[in-house]
Design brief:
It holds the Pfam family DUF3850. This protein is mainly beta. The protein has two domains: about 80 residues, Archaeosine Trna-guanine Transglycosylase, Chain: A, domain 4, CATH 2.30.130; about 60 residues, no CATH class. It contains two helices and eleven strands, in the order E-H-E-E-E-E-E-E-E-E-E-E-H. The strands form three sheets. It has a five-stranded mixed β-sheet, with helices on one face. A hairpin with a 5-residue loop joins strand 7 and strand 8.
Amino acid sequence: MIHELKLVQPYFDAVASGQKTVEMRWDDRGYQVDDTLVLREYDPATDSYSGRTLERQVTHILRGEEWGVMNGYCALSIKPVVKMGRFGPIILHQKEDGSLQLRDNLSRFWCACGAPAVHQIEEQANTIYEFLCIKHNAEYQEA
């Protein structure tokens, strides 16, 4: 099952960088292991979304006050969603500056859509992907 959830700063960036791997949530959605969380960056001051999203897979769920989880809440252990590319799994790779990019096990870079990248763009606001496929490179050039 897919769950779309709001996530505010600084927690959004902490999940994106891999520093935060657990989400504490109100347990009102029937969360299960292998569910996908679509985390949407949200700004409560403007009551709006930034457009940035992250996909994370639930790997473990902790419920129960005997484990320190408040009644009605759950602790969701999460990991990046792995997409399959032509040369194997595509993973998010964290660079030294903290930014992320898609990469496969042959060190080939990939567009966010899962297609092989042919063009690298400079820093782009509101996205963590720097590498574009032919289609998305053309769209970026037109914009």
